[in-house]
Amino acid sequence: MSEIRKRTVGDASAVTQDVNDDHKEDVESEDDGKIEVDLLAKTLPQGTNHTPEILDAALSSLPDRWRNWVIRGIFTWLMIAGFCLIIYGGPLALMVTTLIVQVKCFEEIINIGYAVYRIHGLPWFRSLSWYFLITSNYFFYGENLMDYFAVVINRTGYLRILVTYHRFISFCLYIVGFVWFVLSLVKKYYMKQFSLFAWTHVALLIVVMQSYLIIQNIFEGLIWFIVPVSMIVINDMMAYVFGFFFGRTPLIKLSPKKTWEGFIGGGISTVILGLLMSYVMCQYRYFVCPIEYSEALGRMTMDCEPSSLFRPQEYTLPECLQTITKMFNWKSTVTVYPFLLHSLSMSVFSSVIGPFGGFFASGFKRAFKIKDFGDVIPGHGGIMDRFDCQYLMATFVNVYISSFIHTASPQKLLQQVYNLKPEQQLQLYNTLQAALENRGLLNES
Amino acid sequence: MSEIRKRTVGDASAVTQDVNDDHKEDVESEDDGKIEVDLLAKTLPQGTNHTPEILDAALSSLPDRWRNWVIRGIFTWLMIAGFCLIIYGGPLALMVTTLIVQVKCFEEIINIGYAVYRIHGLPWFRSLSWYFLITSNYFFYGENLMDYFAVVINRTGYLRILVTYHRFISFCLYIVGFVWFVLSLVKKYYMKQFSLFAWTHVALLIVVMQSYLIIQNIFEGLIWFIVPVSMIVINDMMAYVFGFFFGRTPLIKLSPKKTWEGFIGGGISTVILGLLMSYVMCQYRYFVCPIEYSEALGRMTMDCEPSSLFRPQEYTLPECLQTITKMFNWKSTVTVYPFLLHSLSMSVFSSVIGPFGGFFASGFKRAFKIKDFGDVIPGHGGIMDRFDCQYLMATFVNVYISSFIHTASPQKLLQQVYNLKPEQQLQLYNTLQAALENRGLLNES
Q: Where would you find the membrane-spanning parts of this chain (chains A, B) (predicted)?
């Protein structure tokens, strides 16, 4: 985090310098695309200096470095406050926010693509990108909502068709885009068009697919969303703080301002604060209950008997620790929420692998000589600058849930059963009844 | 098909011409990357003239144009014969072939990427691409085989772990590649490395994901694989033949040698020959039976009571046709295999949308000024040149099956229910009972 901030201050001149340097050597340059990339740096959104006027006026007396520090700080807390407000707003608010963030991120990535390949004369391409965004959202959101709203959907006739043929409809929509792309090919621009086509698809892969995973996590219970997101934020902030005060040993060439001290300090803080946060949240049904559609109530609910993950459980300590506890005559068991163990894995991932998401984004920005992905958040750059690691984390959490938490739940299967035709549901019911009676699990009545 | 062949003959000089032209105008050129692309055309595999020596000697007396025609013809029939042989070899042979084709296609796409971005000094990158190929294959093939070999796998302890945590293991493997990529970033090559990273991922998306879909289709029954593949081949060949004899009206700028006559003639032939072929294959269990693991036999079987799709069924003709049949005193019903209707949809797709896969590939080749993707098949170019449309078709068939053939069967769901713990099965049973009673489908007893 610190790395981005500092580049923000000093980079405008650095970029210009780079451009000049390259012009001198462009004749023998091995790096063919470099010159154009450097030139294009000027046409790209270089944001971050865009500050609200009132704030600008109030801070005008401060030196540049501090002014930026204050702006960045203010907007960090504003974002955290906003995040809390959205959580208070409930799951629907969170999903809408995810969607908005996704669209903004896609826009930022695509805008960089346009600037890199400098396509101005091809009006179809902008429409095509957005068309693919809508199509893939239709596909992914459909897959999500279908599962959870099965009961409602099955009551309405035409919605049923949309569900049954969801994949086919999505595929047809995609094919329309594909044919449209092929027809839009213009000889002069072949290479640029194909590059942008690939660019769009990679953007979709990163942004849309992963925001779909985020929505899935939200449905598992708000805790699966809030804890990982907060861990990344905590890790970012604490790495910055530790780096600022104790940073000495450089960590990686890619981000010269990141230090081992920040990395380790941030990691330890993430584990501790993550556990603390999880412990508190485990106690509220609002956070731990999966979001389900209740047929009885006719609406979404977040009320449940918390699963065993969120009920305190006694664990026997490993033997090596038991020798210590015996010495002090302590108990050889601990009582914790099992979720805390999962919280531990997540915090380790977010502090060890998470930063690589940041390195990746920062390498990407350097590759195309841009400082930030956009200029939406004063002091922070674009939305994508704040969410680069979140996407990686969301995928981890999703895979983690499906591997360790979610071994085929009756609830999910039931939802699939409700998707069947009524007579098929009855058939399944009868077969199941017979099978259960057969195995003596059910008393014949 | 004709388009590729003809370019093959005359293009060597055309490419050189282009390069010269561009050098004249490169100062004001709007197309920044063009010059390098042209130059690189010389370093890329331009294949196709690579012919076995014996054949070369035997055909040396023929004029160039005819020589190529004969070579291409010979290898077309050789490939068709090879395809039949592999089908005779059974599903395992087909799956292995799919895997080999996939690896070759990936190699061809990646090789073009290397040539385009001229990366020679970065040894890690080649390893990385292959690592990602292996990882994604592990993930996709695992997902496939898990479903079909569930019974066998559950018997072996360590395999069970691989299955339960399959996604997690795959994700970890991917993360290793991701971190490796970030660590391999070198300042000088940032942009090239990111471009190749994207290139690799798009290649994976096209090649690995779709070959996974192909394998899924094979499991549904060989007919779902053989018919679509043959349709694309028939369409290619017949479009060439019709274009050769009657071609007059150009179809699309992208492929100047393709004509409306070829497009329409090819389409009609595909529908007719596709139906004929489906009709014949419907009668053999070898083709229509899904591939399943039989617990009783302890091995894979392709024996079954053919599903209703492959049993002749009586259809009433639509009213407009009935007036005609009444005139001639014919029956107002027809008896056909329901599969023939699906075959019709597939042949329409393969002849209307299929060619766009070809246009896309041919646009791609033009964008990077290459004639063919490789030089493996004399007269045809690379493997990818022959399989471009197959991938699009395979996706269509897969989506088609999941939407129209495979609408969640009670049988499959029950199988999943039986995999739950006994108490979960009871819970599901009770909830289902309540839901069905609630909706009045079940009488409360």
A: 69-88, 124-141, 161-183, 195-215, 221-247, 259-280, 339-361
- Considering the domain boundaries, does residue B376 fall inside one? no
Facing residue for B363 by CB, picked from A190, A199, A426: A190
State the smallest CA–CA distance between residue A61 and chain B in angstroms. 38
Q: Give yes or no: residues A440 and A351 share one domain.
A: no
Between CA B311 and CA B326 the distance in angstroms is: 27
Best mutation target, B204, B425, B430, B438, to test chain A (most A CBs within 10 A): B425
Q: Is B300 helix (H, G, I), strand (E, B) or coil?
A: strand
A423 and A404 in a common domain: no
Residue B331: count of CB within 10 angstroms of its CB:
11
d(CA A150, CA A154): 6
Q: B156: how many CB neighbours lie within 10 A of its CB?
A: 11
For residues A267 and A345, membership in a common domain is answered with yes
Residue B14 domain-assigned (yes or no): no
Say how many C-beta atoms besides its own lie within 10 A of residue A130's C-beta: 15
State which residues form the domain around A426. Answer: 409-445
Q: Is B418 a member of any domain?
A: yes
CA distance A178 to chain B (A): 8
Same domain, A358 and A418: no
d(CA B45, CA B112): 8
Strand partners, A299: A294
Which candidate, B110, B39, B125, B135, places its Cα nearest to that of B382?
B110
**Residue in chain A nearest B192 by alpha carbon:** A367
The per-residue pLDDT string of chain A (445 residues; one tens digit each, 9 = 90 and over) reads 333 333 333 333 333 333 333 333 333 333 444 444 455 545 555 544 556 667 667 777 777 667 777 877 888 888 889 888 988 888 888 888 988 989 988 988 888 888 777 766 666 778 888 999 999 999 988 887 776 666 666 666 677 777 778 889 999 999 999 999 988 888 888 888 888 888 888 888 888 888 889 988 988 889 999 999 999 999 988 988 898 888 888 888 777 788 899 999 999 999 999 999 999 999 888 888 888 777 677 677 777 788 888 888 888 877 777 787 778 877 778 888 889 999 999 999 999 998 898 888 888 888 887 777 776 677 676 777 777 788 889 999 999 998 888 755 677 677 777 777 777 788 888 888 887 887 777 775 5
**Integer CA distances (angstroms), B131 to A183, B134, B168, B195, B196, in order:** 35, 5, 17, 17, 14
Residue A365 and residue A420 in one domain: no
CB hemisphere CA count around A28 (13 angstroms): 2
Which residue carries 């293991």 as its tokens?
A: B169
Nearest CA to CA, how far is B166 from chain A (Å)? 8
A32 with A137, same domain: the answer is yes
In chain B, DSSP finds a helix count (H) and a strand count (E) of 19, 4
Alpha carbons within 13 A on the beta-carbon side of B19: 17
B153 domain residue, yes or no = no
Count of domains for chain A: 2
In our burial notation (b when 16+ CB lie closer than 10 A, e otherwise), range B67-99 reads bbbebbeebbeeeeeebeeebeeebeebbebbb
- What interface predicted TM-score (ipTM) does this complex get? 0.78
Residues A342 and A444 in one domain: no
Distances (CA, A) of B358 to B22, B58, B372: 27, 32, 12
Same domain, A106 and A153: yes
